[in-house]
From TrEMBL:
This is NosD protein. Residues 1-26 form the signal peptide. It comes from Pseudomonas saudimassiliensis. It holds the Pfam family NosD. Residues 45-185, 191-366 form the Carbohydrate-binding/sugar hydrolysis domain. Gene3D superfamilies: Single-stranded right-handed beta-helix, Pectin lyase-like (2.160.20.10). NCBIfam families: NosD_copper_fam, para_beta_helix. Coiled coil: none annotated. It comes from the Bacteria. Keywords: Signal.
Length: 433
């Protein structure tokens, strides 16, 4: 326990202006004799429960002793930060408001609050966890944020919500049972690294943002691991998607971005009732929609309903050095022109490639072409699947092989890799977060 110090009247008044006054339980001091204790350059909040909505309007480093709980009785925000140079560390926040229209949050960081640090806090409630509104240089580190699993995902707040926020660092947090784990809208030059996000709608969700880095995060059991939308100049590297539904990585109107060294495993189609973007769609390890001029390399997409799906003009992307392993279907692409998926004479690894390598250079001697006219027919007319094993379908496939002149435009990897690229590890051998 920290040794209690009496607080002079002037300092008590300052604390009231900071918004840290509260109606405490009977075991705590009254509002005009706050129980904060000075320790170096920090102020310690002792064990106890503090009810109210608190506003911080001057710089302070607030640390909470074990067992100190802040809660707002299900109304509004617990902490609203308006001052720059504020640090909140080691605090437990519960039972704030859950009006999503009013943006109720455990911690609401306003535009004037630059250089705020939120570290090692535990947030549990139904509304937004941390909302950052048009601020700069925010640091969100080592926090645990939990939503309410009894609510539908669309009725929960996001774990960490950054809007018009620049130069933020969101590192090593754990988010579970909220709507989206980390949401960024119109937010540039941010780092999202080392976070673990479980049982959500979207793990990381980008909208209208640029020059962001998404490094070394893990998503599990979300409906979309990484939802990248209407953004550019993203660097998405060394992330993991494990047992997500519908989509591992979704790229929607993404340009001039790099998707590299990511591991996506066991993405399966969602169950009835999921609020997925496409009802009844396959579980897609990578879905690329109307996204151009991106580099997609050295990723591993495995054991999913569909390895990669491209549509809506998603051309002019550089796709090479990836491993597509044991997916029910490797590629889905209805094209108007052939897509070449190799760069500088190096293609991708395909677990179902049946070609050969006579000169032992590690590259297949015949191109890998994952789709044919039968695939195209099935995509256009799903009811044809009833005839999959019929003599007519088998004859059609034979005719395509015998007379390649009738071959439709599609994906072609002219230099498929014969061996799994160095550095690629399966889920069974990769150490998880």
């Amino acid at each position: 326990m920290f040794k209690h110090q009496a607080i002079p009247w002037g300092l008590s008044a300052l604390m009231i202006l900071c918004g840290l006054s509260a109606t405490a339980h009977a075991s705590l001091q009254s509002i005009d004799s706050l129980p904060l204790q000075a320790e170096g350059d920090s102020w310690i909040l002792p064990t106890g429960e503090y009810s109210g909505q608190f506003v911080i309007e001057t710089p302070i480093h607030l640390r909470c002793a074990s067992g100190a709980v802040l809660q707002s009785g299900g109304q509004g925000n617990v902490l609203t930060i308006r001052a720059a140079e504020v640090t909140i560390e080691g605090c437990t926040l519960r039972n704030w408001g859950h009006n999503l229209t009013d943006m109720d949050a455990a911690i609401f960081v306003e535009q004037t609050a630059s250089n705020v640090v939120l570290r090692n806090n535990h947030l549990r409630g139904q509304g937004f966890g941390i909302w950052s509104d048009s601020t700069r240089d925010l640091r969100v580190e080592d926090n645990l944020i939990e939503g309410d699993p009894e609510l539908r995902s669309q009725d929960r707040g996001n774990g960490i919500h950054l809007i018009n926020t620049n130069n933020a660092s969101v590192v090593d947090n754990r988010v579970k049972n909220t709507r989206d784990g980390i949401y960024l809208g119109n937010s540039n030059n941010n780092l999202i690294q080392g976070n673990l996000m479980e049982d959500l709608r979207f793990g990381i969700h980008y909208m209208f943002s640029q020059s962001n880095r998404v490094i070394g995060n893990t998503t599990r059991r979300t409906r979309t691991g990484y939802a990248l939308m209407q953004s550019r100049l993203l660097t998405v590297e060394n992330n993991r998607s494990e047992d997500d539904r519908n989509y591992g990585i979704l790229m929607n109107f993404i340009t001039y971005s790099t998707i590299s060294n990511n591991f996506v495993s066991n993405v399966q189609r969602g169950q009835t009732g999921d609020d997925s973007m496409i009802k009844g769609g396959e579980g897609k390890a990578l879905f690329i929609y109307n996204s151009l001029f991106n580099t997609i390399n050295n990723n591993q997409f495995e054991r999913s309903n569909l390895g990669i799906h491209l549509t809506a003009g998603s051309e002019d992307n550089k796709i090479s050095g990836n491993a597509f392993m044991d997916n029910e279907q490797q590629v889905k692409y209805v094209a108007t022109r052939t897509q070449e998926w190799s760069v500088d004479g190096r293609g991708n690894y395909w677990s179902d490639y049946l070609g050969w390598d006579r000169n032992d250079d590690g590259l297949g001697d015949v191109p890998y072409e994952p789709n044919d006219n039968v695939d195209r027919l099935l995509w256009m007319y799903p009811q044809v699947r009833l005839l999959m094993n019929s003599p007519a379908i088998q004859l059609l496939r034979w005719v395509q092989r015998a007379f390649p002149v009738i071959k439709m435009q599609g994906v072609q990897d002219s230099h498929p890799l014969m061996h799994l690229p160095t550095g690629h590890l399966t889920q069974r051998t990769q150490e998880t977060h």
